[in-house]
Amino acid sequence: GRAVKGADDIPAGLQALAPLLTGADALQRIATIRNDRTRLVCRGPSQSEPVFLHLDRYTTETAAGHKEEGCEVEVHAAPQAEQAALQMGMFLRNALGLAPIRQSKMGRCLAVIRGGLATPSAPKKVILDMDTGVDDALALSMALRSGCLDVLAVTAVGGNVPVSQVASNIAVVVAMVRGTSKTWRTKSVPRIAIGVEPGGGRRDASDVHGPDGIGGVTMRRDYQKWVRAARRLRPRQDAGRLVAELLQSHPVGEITLVTTGPLSNVADWIDKFPEAVIRLKAIIAMGGVFFDCGNRSPAAEFNIHADPTAARKVVEFCRAPVMERYVWRERVPLTFVGLDVTHRVTLLRSKVEQAAAKHGRGSGLARFVGHLTAHYMNFYRRNEGLDGCYLHDPLAIGYAINPTFCKAEQFHVEIEDKGEFTSGASVADYRPTRIFKDRGKEVTWVCYQVRASDFEAYFHRCLGL
Ligand code: BDR
Ligand code: CA
Predict the structure, then answer these.
(1) Is residue 337 packed enough to be buried (19+ CB in 10 Å), middle (13-18) or exposed (0-12)?
(2) pLDDT at 183
């Protein structure tokens, strides 16, 4: 097709549609999508109907200059040549290693546009809901140090350790980061509030994260200064009330909620303050596994396994349709940053040791990261031979800062909350079939690819490693 270069270049016919489509007087260019197609006709000696191959090379560029390129091959045939087309598809898959695409061109272009629009000049307002946890502590440190997020509140949910311990861990991390980051000292301190324990009484993960949930740092003599400083930040408010108050006092669609623990708090807020929750811009949840195996059970990831009933409630609440202007949309856009992507991003022990050596004994944060992660890294070394740890929760924060770190696609997602062996499984309907799918429910975003080394480099920079 012809590339549209600028707003003036938008064809007059389309301009005439502007008031209908947008309620505005003119269309504005937000992206240029270019598709160069080569069409091949393939016919075997005994074949009467040909198979057509469309070789597409497409580029998308947003008005802000954010670019992405890709290639794809489409196989087309008349019904009489269906067998030949299937064979051709199989050949392309096996001989050339081409992977089937689940997302439409429009879906991919929309993702680029979202990414391009998502580099805001002003920090994005967020509420973080965490079960702090070593990787939650890394995620919180990253959020506070990135400069890209305005962290209005951090709420505690039980999960890795009991909720009261989570709340004091959050306060210790905030005090520690605040005390060691010169640039951050002047900014306001996020409010901390305490939420609920997950229902269902599953065992916590203090075996993985250390007795206090943050690698035992709160028990070390040299950290008592921060433990004392944290006492002044201790939560004085219930998480639900604080979140409802913040959402009601900000414009609709301004605050994003990032969760890095079980979804028990969010389910509780949906019960108590649904009219506040629908004011969220989006929810980004570290949780679930959709195309791979779980970590807490073969089928389930820890955060969902800890409270599947809550996770199911959140998924169902968020996807309920709302009529806006002339189109339906989901009630709250929900994205899962699950193990499919978080198992691809790591922090290596050697990196932490290097940073500690480079900065010397006195350097606060690099030392803190070393002490914080040692126990957690020992677990991964014993468990799977990784001398480091996964950056599960930091990736959810990374996605909130810059969604182009991951590729996400919309699926119909369900959470299994009853199965004897599958409780907590997060199921995305990725069957290739169109006929059996429930299109109306294909609204939950699931991350399936990550730019791992770019994200890791960004994480290192944020933490000064
Ligand atoms: C999740 O489980 C927790 O233990 C981590 O903090 C992370 O949120 C990964 O499955
Ligand atoms: Ca967590």
Answers:
(1) buried
(2) 66
Q: Name the residue of 305, 341, 393 whose CB sits within 8 Å of the most ligand 1 atoms, as the mutation to test its pocket.
A: 393
Q: How far is CA 7 from CA 4, 14, 230, in A?
A: 8, 11, 53
pLDDT in the model for residue 1 = 40
Q: Is 158 in the pocket of ligand 1 (CB under 6 A)?
A: no
Residues 6+ apart with CB under 8 A from 455: 345, 391, 395, 398, 405
Return the structure tokens found at 325.
Answer: 């202007």
- Please list the alpha-helical segments (H only) found in 321-363: 339-342, 349-359
Scanning 62-214, the segments in alpha helix (DSSP H) are 82-96, 105-117, 134-146, 163-180, 206-209
Q: Kindly state if the Cβ of 302 falls inside 6 Å of ligand 1.
A: yes
Q: For the segment 375-397, what is each residue's pLDDT rounded down to a tens digit?
A: 999 999 999 999 999 999 999 99
Angle between helical axes of 364-384 and 134-146 (0-180°, round to 10) = 140
Length of the chain: 465
User: Tens of pLDDT along 185-209?
Assistant: 556 799 999 999 999 788 899 999 9
Alpha-carbon span 185 to 162, nearest angstrom: 29
CA of 104 to the centre of ligand 1 (A): 31
169 lines ligand 1 (CB under 6 A): no
Query: Which residues, listed in sequence order, are joined to residue 35 by a DSSP beta bridge?
Result: 58
Tokens 């096996």 belong to 94
Distance 198 CA to ligand 2 centre (A): 13
In this structure, what token pair is assigned to residue 166? 């989570």
What integer pLDDT is reported at residue 281 of this predicted model?
97
DSSP letter at 160 equals S
392 touches 347 (CB < 8 A): no
Ligand nearest to the CA of 379: 1
Residue 284 alpha carbon to ligand 1 centre in Å: 14
Kindly give, in sequence order, each residue whose CB lies less than 8 Å from that of residue 253, ignoring residues fewer than 6 positions away. 279, 280, 281
The alpha carbon of 86 and the centre of ligand 2 are apart by a number of angstroms equal to 44
Distance, CA of 185 to CA of 71 (rounded, Å): 47
> Which run of H or E residues covers position 73?
strand 67-77
Residue 391 identity: L
Q: Is the dihedral angle over the CA atoms 334, 340, 345, 350 positive or is it negative?
A: positive
Please tell me the distance from the alpha carbon of residue 254 to that of residue 281, in angstroms, as a whole number.
Answer: 6
Q: Pick from 149, 207, 212: which is nearest to 177 by CA?
A: 149
Q: For the chain, list residues with pLDDT below 50.
A: 1-2
Residue 350 and residue 347: Cα distance in Å, rounded?
Answer: 9
